[in-house]
Structure formats: structure tokens, C-alpha cells
Amino acid sequence: MVERAHDPRRLDVAAFAADAGALEGAWPLAGFGRLCGDAAAAADGAVTWHVQGQTRPVRGGEPQLWLRVQATARVPAVCQRCLQPMLVDVAVDRWLRFVADEAQAAELDADSDDDVLALERALDLHSLVEDELLLALPMVPRHGRCGQPLVAPAAGTPPRWGEPDAAANPFAALAGWPRKPPVQ
Ligand SMILES: [Zn+2]
Q: Domain limits of the chain?
């Protein structure tokens, strides 16, 4: 059997599944504009991914076409508590079923737990991986233990994770002020 070359940016899903193909790689995060938003230009990490094709036999019918999509990334985000930049670890591992057209995909997607997509002759895995990572991204990203003060510290102040921070208490600064003389 001759091995076909499969292009991850223009994947023939049916041929890839029939070959039980597998592709993997790492794409620069900077190319994932929807995932990273404004931070994309400064993002220096990568999305590592692995995609595998499979056909599942159906009695008396055409075999089903499936892709397993696995990806991990460390995505720049903004902590919604302290509004400081942070990195969110995102990982996906999903099986997607491909069917002949959009109508069939919509029908099957509605009454099954599987994710069903319409078959494309030239599927862009970069875009598919980004879609899946976006779905896995937390709605409200927050530091696991947000040790940052709510008020942004002066530039150069290192974050002190998990420690109580005097700057978080706006009254702490008043402690050193001269007291008013007592009223006579
Ligand atoms: Zn935070």
C-alpha cells in the first residue's frame, strides 16, 4: 500500500481516515489570533498537536469517518480577578465524526453526544485545533491562587504568590501618615 502524504492545512479527511493516518507537530502560538487575542503578537509558545484518522465499520453501510484531535497549549490570558497577564494551560482530546454534509451534521449533532462535522475536501487542521482549544479555554480565566493585589502594583514589584500583600489593603499606606492633632 502506497502511503499518501497528508497536508495538515488542507487535509482530505476521507482519505486520511481511510489510511488510518496520523499527523503531529507544533505550531507557533503567535499564529493563533483567535485563541490569544491581543497577546498573540507577543506569544512565544507553541501549540503541540496530534491528529489521528479512523474509519469505523457500519453493518450494511459506508464506514464512519472519525478524527481524534489532541492538542496542548499554554495560552496568554488576563486574570479576571487581578487583571494581570497570566498563562492558562489548555488541553483537548476529542473524537470528531465527519459526515457527508451540513444538514446531516446538524441532525446528528443534535441527537448524539458526539461532535459531528460536515466533511471537507481540504480541512485546515490549524483552524480545527484552534476551535477545539477555544472551546476548552475557561470562560473566566483566573490565577489558581491569585496572589496579586487588586490594585496594580508599581512597575517592578514582583508578584508574591499566595502571600497576603500589604498593597492589597488600601489603608495600609495610611499607617505611616502623621496623625491629626487631637481636637481641643
Ligand atoms: Zn490574578
A: 13-175
